[in-house]
Amino acid sequence: MTTMPERRAALPLLSHARGKRSAVTCELKCGNACADDAPNTSENEYFRDLASRAFTRRRMLGGVGGGALAVALSPASPAAAHRRPGHGHGPARGLSFQPIAPVAADVDALTVPRGWTWRPVIRWGDPLSTRAPEFDPEHQSERAQMQQFGYNCDYLDIIETPGTHGRRALAVVNHEYTNENIMFPPSEDADTLEEYKRIAMAAHGLSVVELRRSGPGRPWSYVRGSRYNRRIHLKTRFAVDGPAAGHPLLRTREDHLGRTILGTQNNCSGGTTPWGTVLSGEENFNQYFVADDTPENRRYGIPSTEGGRAWWTVEPRFDARRPGYENEVNRFGWVVEVDPEDPDSTPVKHTAMGRFKHESANIRLARDGRAVAYSGDDERFDYLYKFVSTRRMVRGSSRWAKAQNKRLLSSGDLYVARFSGDSPPAEIDGTGALPSDGRFDGTGEWVPLVEDGCSRVPGMSVAEVLVFTRLAADRVGATKMDRPEDVQPNPVTGRVYAALTNNTNRGVAGYPGVDEANPRVTNREGHVLELTEYHNDAGATRFAWTLLLVCGDPSSAGTYFGGYEGPVSPISCPDNVAFDSTGALWIATDGQPGTLGLDDALHRVTLTGRERGKVEQFLAVPREAETCGPVVHDRDGSGSVFVAVQHPGEDGSWADQHSFFPDYAAPGTLSRGRWGGPRPSVVQVYRR
Ligand code: FEO
Ligand code: CA
Ligand code: CA
Questions:
Q1: One Pfam family name from the record (predicted)?
Q2: How far apart are CA 399 and CA 307, in angstroms?
């Protein structure tokens, strides 16, 4: 590690923190979104109190679990058939482990259950091609980074290749953002600082990496030089498809046709489709631009004053005030689709799925075979969406079938969620205390924005609805939620789970008050919503909902664990979700250091039976890191859990690193290893 004195950091060091998070996370990940006013200032009447209709609803609903509809759930729905949760070849079995105790927030270790161990599968800077240079943080270059694993991994899937007896897989990983302060040696040289920006751009995007292992139950290693290895970054060419492709709102001086976009960025979470591609959400893209102060740009939180990474000094398109570049901001905020099995394929931006700060997109099939994608807009007081494809998925694994299915997300209906509570509003007092019926629950509807190829939003064309989806949803009275993160259907039951991570402005003067779906004032700890589509059909336009968890320290008032009264692990700021082969819910957290004084975690939550709501902590990530991308493989061997460890030690600096993950001198010693700084990594946790 260098001993050079601290001179000028690649970005200003930050000392203030507002809300739950590290100030560095606020600045670099979200562009200080929480320090500004929430951009949704619309006055839509967004939450309909249907207490008077409670009797009607009660006839429709029944059973335990709140969201249970009178119609029996159907695990044999088409969605259940296409992709086996838990992967592998054996029966559904789940994982047995002794929950770990919560870990204090200053501990720089990956903590796993007794009898389990872990190892990194791939780390920031690991070379993907044979020609790529070895990781050398003191002499990094754009050229090197474009051939190496990117930074701050988020969404993750490990897709086993059929017919390889569990010996081959492809890992697909998002790289959401960069922590310049700990990535680069300080410098005062203008050329060096410009090169840092180019390296950071190359460290954004996605990676596809081939994995091999000797057999089921054994640890995976990545294959350097595989022809499947691929970096997708801000210089990768994307095709635009869907109704807004080619529209003037997407044209710039570098793309007169509005059909080709260079790059993807701020890829947060995602989802793997039944046809084997991966969807990735472009989330906090706004903070990378400077643009004119228009109502549309304001609604998307795009700054009109210079700051942040100032990438426009190396790529003019990030200054959308310049003539001809005004629409550059409209070219990000989409769901992108990547085919990991075809390294030569052109990835696609799907305009039919709308433009907002997509956390992720996860698919379930409707009863009639249409593809339904759920997606959340991660902003305080923003919305939950679903897209329903026009065409049906083609069965089979032929190339022809896959080619057909890769067009499914090009055309369809786009909806936004409106929730109604069944308890009197006076009983939702903002403390988290349950209303007299014992549940935060109710019904809801999917309100169309685009349907049958037509705009359902008065005064907006289809293209305008898709490019300015937030403004369209404002006009139809969508429900303002507490920051929707991952939204994912359970492959076993079909129920949909949404992580509402937190919203410290809820109920604060000048902001919307509580409602039954967002029932806590200054909601610092977040909650988890369970949604059951009518007839358990993902294509339905009505649903029932209930809050599964109201997060926090279980000994605190105003928390709720599905009605379970036994011991549970504390949980706060739910973010990414996943399921194992039994349908149990796994929740990764982002923010526990600020709310609970604990390292962020991965928890398993039981969803059925008498232990519904039981939360058990499986692991804790190192100091100042966030848990991302959980993947649970429990069908073969003794099982593995994979996580993407994002922004370890991010409050440090080049000269004062706070984490040495994952290359500790020896596991568990908490001491620096070969390089004296952290490397965001994908980790496999498996039995010792
Ligand atoms: Fe990138 Fe919404 O977390
Ligand atoms: Ca209720
Ligand atoms: Ca996230």
A1: PhoX
A2: 47
What backbone phi and psi angles, to 5 degrees, belong to 527?
-150, 170
Nearest to 572 by CA among 584, 556, 22: 556
> What phi and psi, each to the nearest 5 degrees, are found at residue 584?
-70, 150
3-state helix, strand, coil in the chain (%, to 5): 15, 30, 55
Residue 268 Cβ inside 6 Å of ligand 1? The answer reads: yes
Query: Is the confidence at residue 64, as pLDDT, over 80?
Result: no
CB atoms within 10 A of CB 547: 25
Q: Which of 124, 22, 103 is nearest to 668 (CA)?
A: 103
- Does ligand 1 lie within 6 Å of residue 378's CB atom? yes
Nearest to 488 by CA among 355, 379, 391, 588: 588
Look up the pTM and report it.
0.91
- Residue 9, pLDDT above cutoff 50: no
Q: What pLDDT is stored for residue 417 in this prediction?
A: 98
The pLDDT-based confidence of 85 (bands split at 50, 70, 90) is low
Rounded CA separation 204/347 (Å): 15
In the numeric block, which tokens belong to residue 621? 């990530």
Alpha-carbon gap, residue 548 to 613, rounded angstroms: 7
Q: Where are the alpha helices (DSSP H) in 118-172?
A: 142-145
Tokens representing residue 649 in the block: 């030690």
Decide if 152 contacts 590 (C-beta within 8 A).
Answer: no
In this structure, are residues 267 and 175 in contact, taking their beta carbons and an 8 Å threshold?
yes
Instruction: Determine whether the shortest distance from the Cβ of 126 to ligand 1 is under 6 A.
Output: no
What residue segments make up the domains of the chain, in order of their start? 29-97+121-547
Q: Do 108 and 652 contact (CB within 8 A), yes or no?
A: no
Q: How far apart are CA 340 and CA 354, in angstroms?
A: 23
What is the torsional sign of CA 152, 156, 159, 160? Answer: positive
Ligand 1, atom nearest to 283 Cα:
1
- pLDDT one-digit tens code per residue, 513-563: 999 999 999 999 999 999 999 999 999 999 999 999 999 999 999 999 999
